[in-house]
Amino acid sequence: MPITEIEGRKLTLTHLERILYPRTGTTKGELVHYYATIAPALLPHLRGRPLSFLRAPSGVDATSFFAKRPPAGTPSWVTTSVTERSSGEEMEQVQINDLATLVWAANLACIELHVPQWKAAAPGTADRLVFDLDPGEDRTVVDCCAVALLLRERMRADGIESWAKTSGSKGLHLYAPLTGASPEQAAAYAKALAKELEADHPDQVVSRMTKNLRTEKIFIDWSQNSAKKTTAAPYTVRARATPTVSTPVSWDEIEECDDPGRLSFTIADVPDRVADHGDLLAPLLERKRAGKLPS
Fold first, then answer.
1. pLDDT tens digits, 4-31
2. Using one digit for the tens of pLDDT, what is the confidence trace for 73-95?
3. Comparing C-alpha atoms, which of 110, 109, 112 is closest to residue 28?
C-alpha cells in the first residue's frame, strides 16, 4: 500500500485501482487525484463547515451511504466540530480544512461532499443563500437556466448578487453571499421568492416538493437554507453513473445554454476549466459582496 506525505501528514492510500464508476472505468486513484488537483479551488468553500459525506467504498453501483460522524480510525490531526441535531443530541462532524484531510476523505471513497450554509463557529449565522433548481419530468438544465435568470433578476431587485454552479446531476444551484441573517431568515426569504416566481410563472416554476406538481416544471428547492440541511459543495464529485462534478458556471454560459450537454462536466473536464477561468464562485467568498436580506 502506498504511503504518501502531505503537508507533514502521513497517509496510507489503499485500493487505488478499485473501480468506483464501472461505466467509465474510473478508479479510486483517479478520484483521489482529482480532489488533490482541485483542492486550491475547493478548499475555500469547505473550510470551517461540518461535512456530510456520501461514501461508496465498492463503487457507485454498489451500496452507498451518507456519513456524518467521523469514521473509526480518523486521524487525530483531522479537525472536527460538534453540531446539534434536530433531536437536541450533539454530534461530532469532520471539517475539511486542508489538503491532507481532503485526500484522507477521498481515500475512504467519500465521493460526495455536502455542507450547510453556515460555519461551525457560527451555526446561527447564514453566510450564504442557496436555491436548488431541480427539473421535473420532461425538463432539463436548459429550463433551469431560464428560471435561474429570473431568480437572478429578482434577487438583484433586493440588492443581492448571485452566482451559479451545476448540481452535478440534472439541475443548477444558485448562491448569494449573505450578512446579518439567520438560517431561518434565509429560508423564509428563499421560500418567499420561490412562491413569488411560482405565482408569476406557473407554467415554469413550482415551489412545492410534491412529485405530481413538478412535471414539466422547475422545482425551486428553497429548503436547503435550513440549518439542518446541506447542499453538494462546489467541485464535489457526484455518485452518478459517470463521475460528474458540481461545477461553477458563468452567467454567459447560462444565458447561452441550449443543450444539456453544454453544462455537464466530469473530473476530466473541471481542472482545465479552473486553470482557464479560475474559480467562478470565488465572489461567493468575498464578504464585501455579501448582501442583506430585505427587512
1. 899 999 999 999 999 999 999 999 999 9
2. 999 999 999 987 766 788 999 99
3. 109
Which residue shows C-alpha cell 452507498?
Answer: 64
Output the nine-digit C-alpha cell for 136.
Answer: 421535473
Cα–Cα distance measured from residue 118 to residue 50, given in angstroms and rounded to the nearest whole number: 9
At residue 86, the pLDDT reads 64
Inter-helix orientation angle 99-107/28-46, to 10°: 140
- Spatial separation of the C-alpha atoms in residues 154 and 195, rounded to whole Å: 12
Query: Quick check: helix, strand or coil at residue 148?
Result: helix
pLDDT over threshold 70, residue 1: no
Instruction: Return the amino acid letter for 87.
Output: S
Average pLDDT over residues 282-292: 95
Distance CA 34, CA 106 (A): 9
Kindly give, in sequence order, each residue whose CB lies less than 8 Å from that of residue 103, ignoring residues fewer than 6 positions away: 4, 6, 11, 13, 32, 35, 36
Distance from C-alpha of 150 to C-alpha of 156, rounded to nearest angstrom: 10
For 26, 37, 39, the CA distances from 8, given in Å and listed in that order, are: 28, 18, 17
pTM of the prediction?
A: 0.95
Q: Which amino acid is at 67?
A: A
Element (H, E) at 164: strand 163-166
